[in-house]
Amino acid sequence: MPDEYGYPTEEELERIESWDPQDVEGCLRFIGELWHWQDWWGEKDGLWVFATGGWSGNESLLHALKRSLVGHVIHGSSLSLPGGLLIIATGKKARKKLELVFDKIRGWAWSHVETVCRTCKFWEREENGRGYCRMSEAFTYSHQSCEYYEPCEEF
């Protein structure tokens, strides 16, 4: 249980840091039990959401998670946003949902930068982040993966 001020104890943080990486959901549930505001975390169908609310005790829990082997296991299936929001997908369906979010973010980001290679003019980025090389008539995710790529100043 957290200390008298609502902060996790050193023992609880160490327990998170040494958690068995085969038990991801157990670790996340434990973190949820220690969360300062119980209505600022939740899980449904393998999609976990934690919002720190700026509370340093909650931030300490997430830092312990990131330092743990569990943190390494979930790294590719999580999204961390400024302001203390962490979204983690532990199930197959949840990972698919989170991948859709990633695709939307990538598409939005790439739609706000230059989309044609300045040097060769053959490769153009589409809204979804994927590119199309007019020279090879192929779709690629990177200008460098185009068979006609020669080093140039990319955008």
Question: What is the C-alpha radius of gyration, as a whole number of Å?
Answer: 21 Å
What structural class is derived from the secondary structure elements?
alpha+beta
Beta-strand content: 15-25%
Mean pLDDT: 82
The total number of structural domains is: 2
Shape field: elongated
Helix and strand succession? HHEEHHEEHEEE
Unreliable parts = 151-155
What strand order characterises the main sheet?
1-2-4-3
Q: Quote the distance from N terminus to C terminus.
A: 51 Å
The count of helical stretches stands at 5
Total number of strands:
7
Which sheet architecture does the biggest sheet show? Answer: 4 strands, antiparallel
Helical fraction equals 25-40%
Describe the 3D structure:
By secondary structure, the chain is of the alpha+beta class. It has two domains: 10-105, no CATH class; 114-155, no CATH class. It is built from five helices and seven strands. A four-stranded antiparallel β-sheet has the order 1-2-4-3, with helices on one face. A three-stranded antiparallel β-sheet has the order 5-6-7, with no helix packed on it. A hairpin with a 4-residue loop joins strand 6 and strand 7 (138-140). Helix 1 packs parallel to helix 3.
What descriptive keywords fit this protein?
single chain, 155 residues, alpha+beta, 2 domains, four-stranded antiparallel beta sheet, three-stranded antiparallel beta sheet, 5 helices, 36% helix, 17% strand, elongated, disordered C terminus
